[in-house]
Amino acid sequence: MNLPSLQQPKTLFLFALTAALLGILPYGGYRCWQSRQIIPEPQVPAEEKAYEIVDNPDGSRTFVCYKFGFKVTYPDTWEFSEKYSSFRYEAGALEIFRGSDQTDILFSVWAPRNQDRYPTLWESLVGQDGLAGLSPDPNFTVAGLPAFRYGLLERLQARDVEQTVFENDEHVFAISISWDHRNDPEYAEILNSFKLTD
After folding, report:
1. Percentage above 70 pLDDT, the chain
2. Is 28 within the bounds of a domain?
3. How many domains does the chain divide into?
4. Domain of residue 111, CATH code
5. Is the pTM of this model over 0.70?
6. Parallel, antiparallel, or unpaired for β 70-74 and 103-110?
7. Does some domain include residue 189?
8. Amino acid 128: pLDDT
């Protein structure tokens, strides 16, 4: 009887089993240790502010819109309306109002006009319905940009409004006020404070 030949497979089996256990145990321990580690959550950059309101020394406030690149200053008798203002989309709207008589001014930002269809801002405006008193005054500007002022019928909360429209390379801007308040000196002051930012 050849005993060594029977012992050899058993020895090889025990050796293989031991090697496997020696490999599995450290790996299992590593995985267990790894699972207990606190993995920091990825840092998500904070969203850039769309706008901020700055209090000025004279009591007035300046609304600075970072998203659309403009700022406008209004007296302390006027307030910012969160309800009717929005800057979350490709277009935007800012409303400020005077609390004493609810006079409001709406600043709208539109996407750039279709230059193939409307080579000039003037041509895009005269195509609208409900315009009144549209006058292409070449000397009328806002923030150094050529602007057009005209009446719109029943557009702002079903009221007649006066709207001033102008554009830069990136956006079309429209500023609207109730027709009854279009000669308000504070409106002219607010309109003149409108500036484009970098």
Report:
1. 65
2. no
3. 1
4. 3.40.1000.10
5. no
6. unpaired
7. yes
8. 59
Token representation of residue 179: 């027709």
191, 142 contact by CB (below 8 A): yes
**CA angle (166 as vertex; 160, 171 as ends), nearest 5:** 110
Could you tell me the residue range of the domain that residue 70 belongs to? 51-196
Is residue 15 in a domain? no
Q: Which two tokens stand for residue 25?
A: 């145990």
In this predicted structure, what is the pLDDT of residue 42? 45
Mean pLDDT over the full length of the chain: 74
Sequence-distant (≥ 6) Cβ neighbours of residue 68 within 8 angstroms: 87, 92, 109, 170, 171
Asked if residues 150 and 91 have their Cβ atoms less than 8 Å apart, the reply is: no
Which tokens sit at 8? 């050899």
The 10s digit of each residue's pLDDT in 35-65 is 555 544 444 344 578 899 999 999 999 999 9
Specify if 35 maps to a domain.
no
| CA trace torsion 144, 148, 153, 156 (10° rounding) | -10
